[in-house]
Design brief:
This is CBS domain-containing protein. By secondary structure, this protein is α/β, with parallel strands linked by helices. It contains nine helices and nine strands. A hairpin with a 5-residue loop joins strand 2 and strand 3.
Length: 243
């Protein structure tokens, strides 16, 4: 599928910091560009950490106040999280302020994979890497949500071209494709059950698809046939092994 890669929705003009970038410069970059976070890179443009507004807030919140009585020692300061927070509270550079290791994605990862990574780690942006693990972009939740703004007609055209014609080698009108508010309905009669499963699976992974309703029927139930004996065509055999 040609649209569902992170590289197709990421921002390539990335605001970044170096390990030795001063604290105030980091704050200036976030404020000037109106962003909530940025990656920290080394000399080879490889991401070594990320900084968020929360990291800067820790620096300010934990800064000692000369007019307050000295706080009692707490054993939580001995924990890994406590030590990391203490370092950030005294941070003067991006390297001391950043969170490491960074959570990243690759440009060739799917939008679904990026969304799952964001949800799992409770973050709003991800540095995007190329094959050599160098920074090439940044992707945000808003970027990922853009796929659901695709027009129904555009989604329908992609399903017909990519799924029916290119993957299953079917005539464009052999299956009826209807798209309403991102919900796709597939109707028609196909030769094998495996082809209906491939059609539904690929359609579901098309950018902008909210749900798939299958009204597909088939002549032959080949679900119990060995893969080597199946006479699939196009790229259908590869998709069947993924189901």
């Amino acid at each position: 599928m040609k649209h569902n890669k992170v590289g197709s929705v990421m921002t390539t003009d990335v605001v970044r910091a170096r390990y030795g970038t001063p604290f105030k410069e980091v704050a200036r970059l976030l404020g000037e560009h109106r962003i909530s976070g940025l990656p920290v890179v080394d000399e080879d443009e490889k991401v070594v950490g990320v900084i968020s507004e929360t990291d800067l807030m820790v620096r300010q919140a934990d800064a000692p106040d000369p007019y307050e009585p000295r706080k009692r020692f707490r054993f939580t300061a001995l924990s890994r999280r406590g030590r990391a927070r203490a370092v950030k509270a005294r941070a003067r550079t991006a390297g001391q302020l950043m969170t490491a290791p960074p959570v990243t994605v690759f440009a060739d990862d799917t939008i679904v994979e990026a969304a799952r990574t964001m949800a799992e780690h409770h973050i709003e942006r991800l540095p995007v890497l190329d094959e050599e693990q160098r920074l090439v972009g940044i992707v945000t939740r808003r970027d990922l949500l853009q796929v659901f703004l695709r027009p129904d007609a555009e989604i329908r055209a992609e399903i017909i071209d990519e799924v029916l014609v290119r993957a299953l080698w079917l005539p464009p009108r052999s299956v009826e494709v209807a798209v309403v508010e991102g919900v796709v309905t597939l109707s028609g009669h196909m030769e094998r059950k495996s082809e209906t499963e491939i059609a539904v699976s690929m359609t579901r992974q098309t950018d902008g698809v909210v749900d798939v309703v299958s009204k597909l029927t088939y002549r032959l139930d080949d679900s119990h046939v060995e893969p080597a004996a199946q006479a699939l065509h196009g790229i259908g055999d590869d998709w069947l092994r993924k189901l």
